[in-house]
TrEMBL record:
Protein name stated in the entry: Ribonuclease
Enzyme class: hydrolase
Superkingdom, taxonomy of origin: Bacteria
Key word Hydrolase present: yes
Native organism taxonomy: Bacteria, Pseudomonadati, Pseudomonadota, Alphaproteobacteria, Sphingomonadales
């Protein structure tokens, strides 16, 4: 195991950079935060200042109000406290970034959450060779091998076509997943209006402001059944089985999530059409990324740390689990 490095300190609240007096993805308000992406378990409100991509800052402003933020473009380098800090795409959601840290001849990449699949709504993951790679482990078990995204969208469209008197209600996380499902539907030639829950509106509007074409979207609330029959409806997962959804015309309940690989999760949520669409890397993508980057050491965060650490040990790669607080599934 590598000796501890004085200029980076993983702690429960996040990853602390003492020379910059800054935290990466802190779980509590801090004076200086460096934020990888806009999901709530990585981007909290209340920081004194925030360093992030323009898209992530806009997401944080949408959720938490005005931010004292400095926008960093992909590939741009800043030097807080003399340390080199560079942002590169993570491929997770709009504006998501890996943080590339360099100091005293050592390069550490804090990847945040990431995926390797193409996504029409965000920049693709950029592999950066490094000495230490900090990786998530959300789906770090061999059972998690995500199917082709296009085939899952085709299943959704086939269900819609087979049920013209019903709608297909898709539960999708409000940031990233909902917009990706919409964009993937458009890429498969589905140009009809898509109806959305009101909780998705602001973030869909934000994606459009950053140039992501989502096609015609309509509010689902207040519509009569005849308006929505034969259409796709998107809503947050929490709305799938509440009073709001009971107003829809006999919906086929679907959910877009990597967790839909586990049938018990689908049954627990009364999901008729589980769609295995994830914004996180699966097992093959996690291990393939480690092969590609070839780090000397791997630090593993939230998820299946033990399985990925065992995989590393079998290949003589030093690995350790970081006990970071406040990480959630985000309904993937």
């Amino acid at each position: 195991m590598r000796q501890s490095i004085a200029w980076i300190r993983p702690q429960a609240e996040g990853i602390y950079l003492p020379e910059a007096d800054a935290w990466i993805d802190p779980s509590v308000p801090v004076a200086r935060a460096i934020v990888t992406h806009g999901h709530a378990d990585h981007a909290r409100g209340g920081h004194g200042s925030v360093l992030a991509t323009a898209e992530t800052l806009a997401i944080m402003e949408t959720r938490y109000g005005p931010q004292n933020g400095q926008a960093i473009a992909y590939g741009e380098t800043v030097r807080p406290g003399g340390m080199s800090v560079r942002f590169v795409p993570a491929g997770h959601v709009l504006g998501s970034a890996q943080i590339v840290l360099e100091q005293a001849g050592t390069r550490i990449v804090v990847s945040g959450d990431y995926k390797r699949r193409p996504d029409p709504t965000c920049a693709p993951f950029e592999p950066v060779p490094c000495d230490i790679f900090v990786t998530e482990a959300t789906f770090a078990l061999p059972i998690f091998r995500h199917p082709d995204t296009g085939s899952e969208i085709d299943r959704l469209l086939a269900t819609l076509q087979a049920n013209p008197d019903r709608c297909v209600l898709v539960g999708a996380y409000a940031l990233g997943k909902a917009q990706r499902v919409i964009a993937e539907l458009r890429a498969r030639g589905h140009n009809a209006p898509i109806f959305i829950h009101g909780a998705l509106q602001r973030l869909c509007d934000l994606y459009r402001q950053f140039g992501v074409d989502l096609g015609p979207l309509e509010p689902a609330t207040g519509r009569v059944a005849a308006d929505i029959r034969g259409h796709v409806v998107l809503a947050p997962p929490s709305a799938l089985n509440d009073r709001w959804s009971r107003r829809l015309p006999d919906p086929v309940t679907a959910m877009a999530s990597g967790w839909m690989r586990i049938r018990q999760r689908a049954r627990q949520r009364n999901v008729e059409l589980p769609l295995v669409i994830s914004d996180h890397a699966d097992w093959d993508e996690l291990t393939g990324t480690l092969h590609e980057i070839a780090p000397g050491e791997v630090w593993i965060t939230h998820g299946r740390e033990d399985a990925l650490a065992h995989w590393c040990a079998a290949r003589q790669i030093s690995a350790r689990a970081l006990d970071l607080a406040g990480r959630e599934d985000e309904d993937d």
